[in-house]
């Protein structure tokens, strides 16, 4: 299966080139690597789709993706963040390492949520995971390098936004 879109994220948006090899960016909305408005505008002006990432769990109304990983939000943070985001826009997503998916799924319970799973194989792919019907994989972060991470998106509904599984 081919991805519908390729996204990049970076802790240094000013150092990442803007070209046609990717469709959009996942921008940090808070935390140590929060993107300045000038960088957000730079990518939007070049026509890149932009989704915001909440790394602390503090702004479910300001970002549609919660970064659930070491030193950032926890699966327990997602337990409150996901229903709050869904009540606000109906589009809650969590970025999570493949090894932490079971703990996150347990914390989410019956809450609907998209997942962007980190599974660094170096090639775009849709990870095969057994998930409850309320949790759907939107994409996979499959590669990382010094300047940025690369994510393949497979869900047209996620790309359209405001659609919960």
What does this entry look like structurally?
An 8-stranded mixed barrel has the order 1-2-3-4-5-6-7-8. Strand 5, helix 3 and strand 6 form a beta-alpha-beta unit. It has one domain: TIM Barrel (Alpha-Beta Barrel). The mean pLDDT is 95. With 165 residues, it is of the alpha/beta class. Helices cover 22% and strands 28% of the residues.
Main traits of this protein?
165 residues, alpha/beta, TIM Barrel, 4 helices, 8 strands, 22% helix
What's the quick description here?
The chain has helices at residues 37-45, 75-88, 101-108, 156-160, and strands at residues 5-9, 24-28, 49-54, 65-68, 93-97, 113-118, 135-144, 149-153. It is of the alpha/beta class and 165 residues long. The chain has an eight-stranded mixed beta barrel.
CATH architecture: Alpha-Beta Barrel
Span from first to last CA? 20 Å
How many structurally independent domains?
Answer: 1
DSSP helical segment count: 4
